[in-house]
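It is worth pausing here to work through a concrete case rather than discussing structure prediction in the abstract. The textbook approach is simple: state the sequence, then state the predicted structure, then interpret. We follow exactly that order.
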Amino acid sequence: MSVKRDSMSFSNILLFTDLDGTLLNKKTFEFKAALNLIKNCISKGINIIPNSSKTDLELNEICEDLKIPKVYISENGSCIYGLNFLSENLNEKICLSRNKDIIFKNFTDKINVKLQKKCLILENETLQNQIQVLGLPKNKISKAMNRKFSIPFIFLGNNEEEVELKKNVKRNGLNVQFGGRVLSLGDEVSKGDAMMRFMSLLSNETKKNYVSICVGDNENDFDMLDKCDYPCLVKNGPLKNINFKNQCVFSKKEAPDGWVEVVNKTLNIIEEVRSK
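Step two, the predicted structure:
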């Protein structure tokens, strides 16, 4: 990132980012190519906030690896952590979702039994199957499965049945979202809604107007991308019917290089706008 004017402030920029397939390579989970840019962003006052389907335990570890503050949104918009780091009067933890036991009871009580039987709940599977499905090493599985608000599963039915399942779930105040590898049953929350709540709480407390950059790669990021000021999409296979409120920056490369590509482009756009 090249900042031509030393006086130009980037401290009101909030960069919300998905992880798998966006910042982390979808196969290797590698991110080293992004570390210099992350360090540069932090030095300019830009706050980088992971907004992911991952658990709080996973996100704590990733924030340590990335050398960024532990400020993030977990489990597809279920819970906001670390706002007190940005403003001391805000809570450390703000849950937007009911816990997974309540969610699963609603699911088993109200969803068509035939559809339920086609849902292979990942936490009931063997460790070996969990490793195979999630593509994670053995020592990462326990943190990935330690979920408070969501239930990962594989759907064994056809496309029509999957559409029916999602409609059933939505009618009953729940939500099914697709991540990089599995479907996830959760509350009626989203990454976009959690991001907006995050920004509202922070803005009300600090009296600052924030600019949001969002980086994603998949359909469960679309709500977040549509609600931000500067949406960015990292290349990760074919995606159809992409139409966001604001113009989107697309990468030519996959993660993590694609993340660097779109973030640099977007910061240059913001710099040009502010220099006029």
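Step three, interpretation. The chain has eleven helices and twelve strands. The radius of gyration is 19 Å.
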